[in-house]
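TL;DR need structure tokens for one chain.
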Amino acid sequence: LDVIEIDGASNRGIDDVQALREKVRFSPTGGRHRVVIIDEIHQLSKDAFAALLKTLEEPPPHLVFIFATTDPQKLPDTIRSRCQRFDFARVPLRKVADRLLEIRKREAADPEGVRFDLSEGAALLLAHKSEGSMRDAVSALDQVVSSGEAAVSDELVRRVLGIADREVFFGLGEAILKRDPGAALHALHEGFAKGIDARDLADGLSEHIRHILILKVDPEGADLVALSSEDLARLKAGGATWSQDDLLRLLKLASEASWPMRDSPQPLIHLEAAIVQMATLEPGETLAELLARLEALEQRLGGAAAASAAAPTVSAPRSAVATPVPAGGAAVAGAPAPKPPAPPRSAAPAALPTRPFATPAATPAPAGDPAPAAPAREATAVLECSPESDASWSEVVAATNLRKRMLGAFLEESRFIGIAQGKVVVAMDDLHRAVVEEKDNRAIVTAEIARAFGAAFELRCVPLAEAGLAPPSPTDYRPLVDQAIAWFQGDPIERPTPKRERTSG
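>> reply
TL;DR here they are.
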């Protein structure tokens, strides 16, 4: 008689609170206190809270209020400030499973108890289904035992509670981790044929990869994974060949697949696309690995620059130098006929846009000999270069910067030479050529060349030596290295279209 329990969702008006205030004034009948429990108190109306506040400010000495709520932030500050707050946390999964196993032992010891066998996997599955609620776990156990079977196994729990078979996700996860898209699709459709909904398959796959990631990060984190010891060993073995970063990428793909499935009339198609993408995911590289590669490249270029600087200057061979014609017009016996002079370029390389690669100083020719005809000059003699083409190339670099900033940076570090035989000739070193001539990058540059020059020109990347330019020094790469480091560390860099860059990256 001294304990009153009220449902706040059903008795939420001011009249209910006023009636309660009249009841609590009387002294307890048997004990020292009268206890009033209001469940889901956050559902009381604003006027009801105002009527209750007076009783809370000046309560009778024998009165104790207990407020229960799942949303304490919805209570007014005037109510919360006059209460002691106790937050109830979820019960760990292992403790819930141990409690269920203890119930089985006590039922077996009781002469009138229910005899049943409960496996460890079934207890963990019931604990996982309860989501940390001991009451829900015991209710689920009672429901499974009521089926009449003496042996409570994983299969029985899944059949009674409608939980998807874990072997489906083990087969699906194994195919993904082996990078076998065909086997992954086959395992997916096997699970779908068993009656598992596509959305449940997506949620179960995300949970399965989450278990693998947790055991990869913390091999002793079995308390965070509600599985038996055999399943834990299988998960650890499955994720042994994958890195932590790659597992994070898999978990992101699996989690994002469930969003478009909610409103789609064919959710299985979205899940199939996500599984194929996961099964064909290439291993990623960490920031430390990329920085190590850049440092190795700097050291290699530094050694090449030092070797070229220490090498002695060798003059051109006599056979490559044209023999001068005497004043009388007769050629010297045994000497090759002089070659006609190469037509001059319309624009000298000095008039081109400034690049970080310096042109080497010309070596003075011996007295009486003409300047040697270098192969670079002969190769570039047919080039067409004008201020208009220079401006068009600048547009190509600017447009590439908008589409892919790193590729634009590599083009800025290169040297535009001119146009020859329907090709745009650009001089660069081996590193820049490897990046620019990559399939996707080359397609971007070629498209921007066609737009800026107004013609379908091809891109031709020539070595620096062919264009008569000196190789870069290690200090020339320092801005590019700093920019790459800032890019991977997430520092603010001018990125006009971050979504397209993130997709292409």
